[in-house]
Amino acid sequence: RTYLVLFWGICLVLGALEVASNPSPYYRVLGLVVGSVVACAWLVSLGAPFISLVLFLGYLGGMLIAFVYSVSLTADPY
């Protein structure tokens, strides 16, 4: 169990690095999705499945709004 929690923590840090290091909004959203899934899996492994579900739904809604906004800004040349 300790190794699993350590693994989820390392994956969460790697997901955050993916978000911070990519200039494209498409890959940033991919990093956010990976990070949120890993954070929710981490919470489930610690015994909090309901909080994990609420967190995932909140992140998913926020990420979709941020993704649509950033894609619309990059797609419009003016």
From TrEMBL:
Protein keywords: Electron transport, Membrane, Mitochondrion, NAD, Respiratory chain, Signal, Translocase, Transmembrane, Transmembrane helix, Transport, Ubiquinone
Keyword set includes Membrane: yes
Annotated GO MF terms: NADH dehydrogenase (ubiquinone) activity
Signal peptide range: 1-15
Subcellular location: Mitochondrion membrane
Record field: catalytic activity: a ubiquinone + NADH + 5 H(+)(in) = a ubiquinol + NAD(+) + 4 H(+)(out)
Main subcellular location of this protein, as a coarse class: mitochondrion
EC number(s) stated in the UniProt entry for this protein: 7.1.1.2
GO cellular component, one term: mitochondrial membrane
InterPro entries xref list: ComplexI_Subunit6, NADH_UbQ/plastoQ_OxRdtase_su6, Nuo/plastoQ_OxRdtase_6_NuoJ
UniProt membrane topology term: Multi-pass membrane protein
Top-level taxon in the UniProt lineage: Eukaryota
Bilayer-spanning residue ranges: 26-44, 51-72
Family: Belongs to the complex I subunit 6 family.
Protein name, as recorded: NADH-ubiquinone oxidoreductase chain 6
Organism: Crypturellus undulatus
